[in-house]
Amino acid sequence: MNKNYNENPNSTPFDRFSENAKKVLAVAQNISEKTGNQFIDTEQVLLAMLHEKISLANDILASFGVTYNDIEIASNFFSNVDNFGNGRPEISNDLKIALQQSVVAAKQSGNFQVGSEHLLFGILSDSRFSAYQLIRNIDIDPEKIKNQLKSMFQEGFKNSQEIARENEENNQKNNKNSMLSKYAIDLTQEALDGKLDPVIGREKEVERLIHILSRRTKNNPVLIGDPGVGKTAIVEGLAQKLAKNDVPLKLKNKKIYSLDLGSMIAGTKFRGEFEDRLKKLITELEKKQDSILFIDEIHTIIGAGAAEGAMDASNMLKPALSRGKITCIGATTMDEYRKNIEKDAAFERRFQTIIVDEPSMEDTINILTGIAQNYEDFHQVIIEKNAVNLAAKLSHRYISDRFLPDKAIDLIDEAASAVVIKEKVGEDESIKKLETKLENTILGKNQAITNQDFELAAELRDQENFLKEEIEKIKLAKKEIPREKRVLVKKEDIAQVVNRWTGIPISKLMEDDKEKFSKLEDILRKKIIGQDEAIQSIAQAIRRSRSGIANPNRPIGSFIFLGPTGVGKTELAKALSSEIYEKNDALIKIDMSEFMEKHNVSRLVGAPAGYVGYEDGGKLTEAVRRKPYSIILFDEIEKAHPEVFNLLLQIMEDGYLTDAKGRKVDFRNTIIILTSNIGVSEFTNIATLGFKADEKESKTLKEKYNEMKSQVLEEIKKKFKPEFLNRLDKIIVFQPLGQEEIEKITKINLEELSQRTKKEKDINVKFSKKLVEWISKNGFDAEYGARPVRRLIENEIENLLAEKIITGEIAEGDEVRVDFVGGKVVLGSKKELVRK
């Protein structure tokens, strides 16, 4: 008998049972409840053993050919109707005797605990037990099983096999819970099992990790880098090297355990519970000298588990780290390291930092190429090489708030997932039919058992097993689709995911809109009248950006529009929004009259920490973060406080702005437009002359315009600093509008009105030439430009149309002609002439 076996007067008999044995008894109770049995007997324990695949008893029964289905059918055939009852089942007398026999068998074999194999010996210890009879009734000799168990007990099989099996989940050799198995993952074992992705392009960082771990003191490295750059992957790379034994002699046979701090804290209701768990973990690590602890997001241990009068996790780790008793690898971001770890100098000095930078585009493509096979096998697709390259390129260019390679990997993963769902890969009607047939077979089998037609039940059981095998075969075949039959993940699929994430048009991403950009001037001239110079300058800047010649680290273009109100400055920005970005809401308008005071400037990037509005973010930065592909219109820039120009300098030069929370906001996909009314008086004089001029005077007016333009530019130089003006791509002076331009604008506005009435009310509205001429003359104002044209149309035409539609004088399907007769606007149709 084992000399370590001691009786405890306060313990219950079940305290001696292993976790697997307890689980078997719990399942046996559950079986009894479901089947309505009054007692838990040896047959339910036998069924539970066959149900619980991880127990040693199951392995022994399986080696003799005892299966769950055989025992289930035999159990139903020989069931005793008198045993059925309601309520919680009790342990039968036979099972009580069997449990006592199992305890005796464990003692005699020198084991502290009663395992599932001892339980099996107990339920077969008497030929009168139902478990014994069931096994005999399926033509298997229970005595052979008992003899096998006796031989195992004599050879001490328990000590060499079962303890090792159960220790992984619950026990060590001293019967204490293993903290590492409960709260950590063995990354080295994961690497051996092939569960980790290959690590590519991080050889220098892994080598530095090995150097620090091999030091005599301060051998605790901490990886610091932005989220998604691959800090955890570097540790996984080291785990793979350890698994291959491709490490220096000092690190051979070492294992890396990744700590799950959340699980360790979870469930610690009372003071001292967390400290107890962590202390046990540290003690276990000190004893296991081959262990390296990895704490991802290591900043979370600062303050973790701390309560009033208690120590947090970092303070409990300090002594063990300083003595060199345990080795620890940490990973965190630079912000969290600065905020949490640097403040605790005593904790920080025990670690050596390794800075992990974002990989280059080339390295990212190599990483994606290396791990593409894993995603292909998971999704059962083939990822084209050009799709991999595009994922790296687009994620770097357009997804600015995340880091490579993480954002590129996510692109490929989601694109593959979308393709699989779209093509319905792996779905098969034959599986659904077989599953329906299986359900009917199981129902038929159960009904046959109820009717005591055991011959039919046996046939249906065989059919059930056959159907299960067929379903598994089909599913396995679907899991392993031959490469030649797999669907492709193409460039278009990657572009569609980026489009869903950012809203950027697919045509822009796929670069198949070159024809549109080559004719951009013609497209814009249809909407913006009389501003050819402005349109040409903007079109050239956009073409430079699209062709890849322009600096990729600056905005697409930055312009200042000069001119009086109503000449088309804002209208050009709106036209660009709809044509370039293919959506009308891509225009972010910032009225600079709101930022005339210095204390208001901070609202653009967000209020400082501690001030009202800090959590809301900046008016400019938040808008661009939500819509990174947009036009930003700074209206009336001359009214802005000088501090605003410092922000604009950074945007126009570097392509980004840092907000109050320290986040970099990307402006590389924006067009910056600033408008100003500087020199309005000069514009007004030219506009008045230009509107009344005939062809003979046009040359003189052009000369006057050039003189005025020079004066305005001189005024601009006095108002704005040279460093600001030098960063602008173009200073554009809008030309005053003449008679011809006003007529074209009038026609555009009337055409828009005609389209609205046709779309909304199905009314065809036509306008006479006289009406156009009258609106053009009366709708121009040298001070307000073309804006009065719209007001005149609203007051004289739209109001009249609305009145007649409401009164029913104009109905859906009518054709209406609007004319100017006798100094009045007239609505006419075939039926009548309605005068204003």
From TrEMBL:
The keyword ATP-binding appears for this protein: yes
Gene Ontology terms: biological process: cellular response to heat; proteolysis
InterPro entries xref list: AAA+_ATPase (IPR003593), ATPase_AAA_core (IPR003959), Clp_ATPase_C (IPR019489), Clp_N_dom_sf (IPR036628), Clp_R_N (IPR004176), ClpA/B (IPR001270), ClpA/B_CS1 (IPR018368), ClpA/ClpB_AAA_lid (IPR041546)
Organism of this sequence: candidate division CPR3 bacterium
Name of the protein described by the UniProt record: ATP-dependent Clp protease ATP-binding subunit
Keywords: ATP-binding, Chaperone, Hydrolase, Nucleotide-binding, Protease, Repeat
Residues annotated as domain Clp R: 14-155
The keyword Cell inner membrane is assigned to this record: no
CDD domains: AAA, RecA-like_ClpB_Hsp104-like
GO MF terms held by the record: ATP binding; ATP hydrolysis activity; peptidase activity
UniProt domain UVR: residue ranges: 428-470
Domain of life: Bacteria
One GO term describing the cellular component: cytoplasm
